[in-house]
Amino acid sequence: MGGTHHAISQVIQSSGWLLDEITQYAATSRLSKDMNRTLESFQRELHKLQKVVTKVSSRGPVARFLLHDADIEAITACTTSIKAVYDKLGVRSSSIF
């Protein structure tokens, strides 16, 4: 899937790192209501990304290389949500994206 595969893989990889950071944070601190809201938003965006991956993988061989506007919006929203959680955790996300 070329560029499409790279974009989605990058967000999924960042999500994996984020889940590790959340686990470490939760082991040492209590999650605030604000952090819980941010995590719920991240979870919703990750679920939308899962739907994008399913849609993209079901497209024909050529169509897989092209992201639709809705796909880009879902990827961007998930990336924004990841950055928001990193900000709440106090972790620098610039080295990840």
Which consecutive residue ranges, at least 5 long each, have pLDDT under 50?
A: none
Helix content: over 70%
Oligomer: single chain
* Structural class by SSE content: mainly alpha
Task: Report on this structure.
This protein has 97 residues and is an all-alpha fold. The chain contains three helices and no strands. α2 (33-58) packs antiparallel against α3 (69-89). The chain is elongated and about 45 Å long.
For this entry, give a set of tags.
97 residues; mainly alpha; 3 helices; 76% helix; elongated
Compose a concise summary of this entry.
With 97 residues, the protein is mainly α. The protein has helices at residues 2-28, 33-58, 69-89. The protein starts with a helix and ends in an 8-residue tail after the last helix.
Give the topology, please.
Elements: H1 2-28, H2 33-58, H3 69-89
